[in-house]
């Protein structure tokens, strides 16, 4: 038996249309072809592939087992070609193929999801790479050109190599589980007393914040690279630490965490900045995403 030939894209699309429309005649109307042309195209496709795609003993087009197996492949090829054409069109219009963004782990999830959904609707053919990091790691990724856009926190000085624009702030509050010794204290908690208990601290993998202790006062601290892990450990009562108020509002309302009134910090505003390298400006899609984030910054 000879090897299968090379089917054309037109043959595959006629094959798909027959299944989607339910008959050869309806597929012909949908494709603006005559029914004889559709039948001839399917016959040629079967000849190319060396298999029968339809059971012709039945009145309605019914796929054979081979037809069922090859239909999924035909759809994949057709969709890939459509995606290629759509991407070529956006590139011809000056839209970049991919946008990369690094986002501070503290950035509110609801704002991030809304921005990403809006971006995908606006630029469905543009690839998007997302990194969620802590502290200096965001600036490091932008500095090293791994990501074009960054949303970072307030800890670092921005050199002339970066363009920086404010994108709001979030409220950080110190908390602990209701069973934690600090949570059992009424009134203001002195810094000396808080220092005696393990503090859970978010850290990052870059060297930009090496040797810097942002808000760390405890003699013992646990350094965590994941905000979710910090949240989990706080709820178990293994330590105390600061968390974004929005993220733990439900825990506070349900009594799973307690707001600690520390003498040195009742709450803290964690400012957020959008950054990019001045010598490597994002393209059309990247600029659209930056503008969306700026336009939807809470006032």
From TrEMBL:
Annotated ranges, domain HTH lysR-type: 7-64
Family indicated by similarity: Belongs to the LysR transcriptional regulatory family.
SUPFAM superfamilies the record matches: Periplasmic binding protein-like II, Winged helix' DNA-binding domain
Keywords annotated in UniProt: DNA-binding, Transcription, Transcription regulation
Name of protein: LysR family transcriptional regulator
Record flagged with keyword Ion transport: no
Organism whose genome encodes this protein: Herminiimonas aquatilis
InterPro entries from the UniProt entry: LysR_HTH_N, LysR_subst-bd, WH-like_DNA-bd_sf, WH_DNA-bd_sf
PANTHER family per the UniProt record, alphabetical: HTH-TYPE TRANSCRIPTIONAL REGULATOR, LYSR FAMILY TRANSCRIPTIONAL REGULATOR
